[in-house]
Amino acid sequence: MNLMENIMLSMEALVANKMRAFLTMIGIVVGVTAVVTIVSIGEAGKTSVVSSISKYGDGFFTLLPSSGTDVQYNIAPDMGDLEQVRKVPRVEMATGTLTILADAKTERSRETKSLIISGTTNELSKIEKMTMLAGRFFSSAEERSRQKVIVVESDYANLVFGSPQAAIGAKLTIGSSLYQIIGVTKTERNLFSPPVKTEYQAYMSIYVLPRSNDNGTVTFSALYVKADTKEEEALQKIMTDVKKTVAKRHNTTDKTYSTQTAAEVEQNVSSVFSILQVIIGSIAGISLFVGGVGVMNIMLVSVTERTREIGIRKALGATPGTIMGQFLVEAVFLCLLGGTAGAGFGLLASYIFALVSGWPYSVSIGAIVLAFGFSAGVGLFFGIYPARKAARMQPIDALRYE
User: Fold this and answer.
1) What pTM does this model have?
2) What are the residue boundaries of the structural domains of the chain, listed by start?
3) Tell me, what DSSP letter sits at residue 138?
């Protein structure tokens, strides 16, 4: 008996017991659905974060006080540090950021919204490759002359003013100061973007950033640096030079500061997501094990029900291998049907999640291959015992079975 005949017999057996076959497959369907959904969502999350980091391009790295360091005011990178870092050989661009949360009121409606304001320099728009939907980013001249201008994200402009174009020229009251909107950037969405936003991104010159402890010193929480190379050894030397430059100005060692490249962040993010996918996917795989036990139970019932059929086939010359192959193919076929349905439901679930959350939709081919491979494996593993039981039956005993 060849493989196609075994498959046809398996289909006939499943059609003859539709409800039993359906209930048996539920465990496999649920397990595969869970695995495919989790892996696909994990891939989407990884893609989202990595894409938001990759916009900085090759040669980008950050500098900030090392974790565990007693971050005092006199070691925070300042404008003098930034000017010296720009002079370090092979540094193309450098900027700094200091982020605060502040309430902003519109001049007309007096409506208040929370803004996450990054105080920075005009190089940030080039380093982050911002997409301007209306207006422009503030210039170095506006930065030096301390003009109170602000750039907001498109979500804020659409919500408060109706469109990015309508926001240009509008005035916002932040603290005790009045700022004019001169630009609207495209809102960047990634893994950490909330489904319902209550805070919106904005940018202004570090010189006019509202601060409660303003003593005249312009400081940053981190420096963003863009080097002219992506070669690992050269980039490491540039990062060391930058750390030494900042440390020297603050009379401390370069261990006070740490640097991290965009590639290192991407690698760390990918590692974390891979570990989470394995852990959560393994937990979801328990349902596949439970489904496999159900398949074995049903196959044992099937063997018992078809005892006389097995006896007749053996009496007509069927070998134990042929009998075993028939029931193994039936178990694998049953699991593959469940795996196919589970893969479809998993892709649908991850697509719905992407629509609701705003994350990118990612089809994980690896997850689908894993699902089918695991389904076939479950069918083989849990189908062996019932198939061996059928193959070992003595024809005379099987024929006398009532």
Assistant:
1) 0.69
2) 3-52+267-399, 93-220
3) P
